[in-house]
Amino acid sequence: MIFDGKAFKLIPLEDGIVELQFDLQGESVNKFSMQAMAELGDALDILESHPGLSGLLFSSAKEVFIVGADINEFGKVFAGGTDAVKAYNGKTNALFSRLEDLPVPTVVAINGYCLGGGMEISLACDFRILSHKAKIGLPETKLGIIPGWGGTVRLPRLAGLDVAIDWIASGKDQRPDAALRAGVADGVVAPEKLHDAAIKVLRDAISGSLPYLPRRQLKKSPLRINDTEGLLAFEGAKMFIKGQAGRHYPAPVAAVQSMQNGAKLERDAALAVETELFAELAQGPVAESLVGLFLNDQLLGKKAKSFIKSAPGEVKKAAVLGAGIMGGGIAYQSAYKGTPVVMKDIATQGLDLGMAEAAKLLNKQVTRGRIDTAKMAEVLNRIQPTLSYEGFGAVDIVVEAVVENPNIKHAVLTEVEKHLSDTAVLCSNTSTISIDFLAEPLQRPQNFCGMHFFNPVHAMPLVEVIRGTHTSDSAVATTVAYASALGKKPVVVKDCPGFLVNRVLFPYFAGFAMLLRDGADFQKVDKVMERWGWPMGPAYLLDVVGIDTGVHAESVMAEGFPDRMGKSFKAASDVLFEAGRLGQKNEKGFYNYAPDKKGKPQKVPTEESYELLKPHCAALRDFTDEDIIARMMIPMVTEMARCLEEGIVASVAEADMALVYGLGFPPFRGGVFRWIDQAGAKVIAEMASSCETLGPLYQLTPGLQKIVETGQTYYPKAEV
Ligand SMILES: NC(=O)c1ccc[n+]([C@@H]2O[C@H](COP(=O)([O-])OP(=O)(O)OC[C@H]3O[C@@H](n4cnc5c(N)ncnc54)[C@H](O)[C@@H]3O)[C@@H](O)[C@H]2O)c1
């Protein structure tokens, strides 16, 4: 061993070849922490003066090759300001360029995930050999930044502009075959052959039969593209990407700009250009939000893992009650992810619909080439439709998803409990009804909790796991484990009407109802909130959820929190509901709906709803965008703060993730608490006081008031 550090080893192989092996101690994956970087510098010092060095093999001793920079360190680096960020990137670029400039050929053997900085160091090597199991990519734009360690410089020079723009702007992982086609991989082999194959390429390069210097030169020279071609390609790409990413996400366009600004420059000057743009984005709120979401997501993952560890056992078999929209969706997801599931309904028609829905989703996957028909049959076979309780004695968990009616739910839950083993967990997918209330007639309330999915189940990542007063730790752990096995992001919350997500969504709808009552145009409100970043405005969202569902849930919330959510006027939703306008489901809500060429319902504005609303609302008048945003968002803010203060949700991180994963809260804003921090609690307080006559939903909670007075933030400020 030439060098044996905490992250890197230098292992002498035959004939002057040295292996630089990355194996970060105490971590399951390799990542470029500052400490690892410093050690890479030590290893390069040794290599540069190593007598008889003939070639370098770069490898990983872990299953994952390198996941990239240590994102936990970003907060500290970014908080240091532009110069600190530039110094951080400059240091790394110097290391990677030293690797690229070694006087011997270099080959990297990529065995698993090779992302971000991992891919960037690989691009600094002369040749890249990938295992079939490898995945490579530059996901930085998803974090609101651009690749900052040479990705926008070396990738276009190596693979061409089209590939570089596509890979970097999308941030997607790429499979080995795509890397080979793009010229990023020089070979793809079976995992067990990776080491030998990489050594073979290295020996060919050492012997001169595979020239490596022209390749190196290509990466260090200006981009080979003429001015006219370049102008067309860059300007066209920026326009297209801007349209796709939207105005709230500047990083993908900045990545193309970096390639453009550096196109005529040699490597080092082009790297400096990239660093400039990186530093600018790193200082912006979007990067702060998106990096924050990444770290919050890691926290959710850690919490889920610790629940899974404490669960009494794996969920080997599950059951759902009700084969409707939600029950059918849960059964599909369970079967698709490998847990067999019994699906019970009271009507054959319901079961047929549930199975048809699963088949439709699977057919789509087959058409897209993601699965074959054999896999489709295997998944469908894992769903056992039934009208009886046969087989329920053998299931580990049951999710009740029958109609949202407390009496029916009580009847169904007490009935199913009789057929379950003493240890089976029973959950309800209720949207609003208190878990403690539902547990009242149960024999084993300790085995009961909420498991709240979002519609459509296969697409929405969040599952709220609701702990009732009597729910045992092991029931929560089993439910979290099952949600994780379904590929979902579980957030554990305490019981209350609406739990976390609906409890903060309905105040937002209450703000909307008051706006319409006072003469706002719902189309304008939709436009303003969509521009603010929501995937759909409140009127459109209510149409999609179902006006009837909205009205019903709103009454449950009003009963639960009469002081804040009870109302003394007829809301627009009530008017539409009474007129039989139920939303997208019957093609009439705030908007009318007509199927497009693909059969997807498209909204069409209609005078009919305006006419219906007229007698119940003030005459239409203009509200400024600021007014609309304040009146819509402050109720959500105050209710979120209240949920945190009451311990309904354990942390600001989980609260923000629940809204992003459950409601599509604009990711670039990072969640409600991140938004408060970024806008400044004082500004939020001013927004609230501008609407204080609208009632208690616009009053700051004691905790939020304290944040305003002390100048604190919800997220800890990063220390430099
Ligand atoms: N639809 C949503 O967007 C959504 C989202 C989250 C949670 N939820 C909740 O999920 C639950 C189900 O909602 P849905 O939209 O799937 O309803 P749905 O009307 O589509 O389906 C309900 C199904 O339950 C069946 N059913 C009724 N009584 C039954 C019984 N005794 N035993 C077995 N099956 C029975 C019905 O035949 C029907 O197939 C509700 O509690 C709802 O609040 C719905």
UniProtKB/TrEMBL annotation:
Annotated Gene3D superfamilies: 1.10.1040.50, 2-enoyl-CoA Hydratase, Chain A, domain 1, NAD(P)-binding Rossmann-like Domain
EC nos: 4.2.1.17
Alphabetical GO biological process terms: fatty acid beta-oxidation
Reaction catalyzed: a (3S)-3-hydroxyacyl-CoA + NAD(+) = a 3-oxoacyl-CoA + NADH + H(+)
Pfam families attached to this UniProt entry: 3HCDH, 3HCDH_N, ECH_1
GO terms of molecular function: 3-hydroxybutyryl-CoA epimerase activity; delta(3)-delta(2)-enoyl-CoA isomerase activity; enoyl-CoA hydratase activity; long-chain (3S)-3-hydroxyacyl-CoA dehydrogenase (NAD+) activity; NAD+ binding
Domain of life (superkingdom): Bacteria
Pathway: Lipid metabolism; fatty acid beta-oxidation
Enzyme class: lyase
Gene Ontology cellular-component annotations: fatty acid beta-oxidation multienzyme complex
Domain annotation 3-hydroxyacyl-CoA dehydrogenase C-terminal: ranges: 498-593, 628-712
SUPFAM superfamilies, per database record: 6-phosphogluconate dehydrogenase C-terminal domain-like, ClpP/crotonase, NAD(P)-binding Rossmann-fold domains
Name the UniProt record assigns to this protein: enoyl-CoA hydratase
Annotated source species: Teredinibacter turnerae (strain ATCC 39867 / T7901)
